[in-house]
Amino acid sequence: MLGGRRAGAACCPCESEEFEAAVAFSLGADGEVRWVAVGLRCTRDGFCGIYTDWKIDYGPTGHLLTLV
Fold it and tell me: How far is CA 42 from CA 16, 17, 21, 29, 66, in A?
């Protein structure tokens, strides 16, 4: 859970539930994390998409970079 939101189950249009995951951070000019995004890629058909994202409106945020 991040920012009070809980992500739900993921399922690809091909009905697979196995994914490779990636996390991306958007940093502000001050180097603080402003957005966190989670992307998924289906291991069966390669379909990619953004699963969820969060706006980060507090600081300091350096600990977020060490959590992944």
Answer: 7, 8, 9, 33, 25
